[in-house]
């Protein structure tokens, strides 16, 4: 591991490179906060993939890409005379100190849950009009549902136990089934959303991250389906030449071989 002095020098090196790129590189000169936005989102998803794969070297690489974007935005901010990287760093430092009175003040907490509850209360004291005001509108719906539930739980709006939550899941499933039987498309969509929301809530009680769980299933499905495609290729076929019985056979074979990644 690098010493703190070397860590600071590395950050300074990145800042200097960013200055050079903004001054001399036509592509970097052209970029705006708006043009970088979709690239930043892509980089964060790539970091998420590396974390799920538990690939530490890839995580290091993707963290570098995300850090570059932070420095890039700060550079543009400084050109607009709005803020610079020091303002960004000091801003988060001030927030962390303010939101951790049990470390930097005289508040007493004994669990991580109490820390989360204090965090939400402090945000309201700082002038936030709603507990849910900090949930980004553009979050994917699955992630947004998780964040909504975490935030209201932080101020005590929550179920008493997971059995009650599971009963709610079953209730929503019954209501969804009723609408399916009635073939009411709009109501089916509404009740399906309620089923998903209640399942996400139940996952929270089980300490399961629903986004991570679903993404692991996506990756598992992709790997197993690609195994079928490879088997088709080995037989001199394409996937469209296989019937469902053949595909099922190789799918089950992939399951037995535990082909998940």
Question: What this model shows, in words?
Answer:
With 261 residues, the protein is mostly helical. The chain is 75% helix and 0% strand. It is built from twelve helices and no strands. Helix 9 (162-182) runs antiparallel to helix 10. The mean pLDDT is 91.
Keywords:
single chain; mainly alpha; globular; 12 helices; about 0% strand; about 75% helix; about 260 residues
Write the layout of secondary structure elements.
Elements: H1 4-24, H2 26-30, H3 33-52, H4 56-79, H5 85-99, H6 101-104, H7 112-125, H8 141-153, H9 162-182, H10 185-205, H11 210-234, H12 244-256
Mean pLDDT: 91
**Strand pairing plus helix content: what structural class?**
mainly alpha
Terminal CA distance: 30 Å
The fraction of residues in strands falls at under 5%
Structure summary:
With 261 residues, this protein is mainly α. It contains 12 helices and no strands.
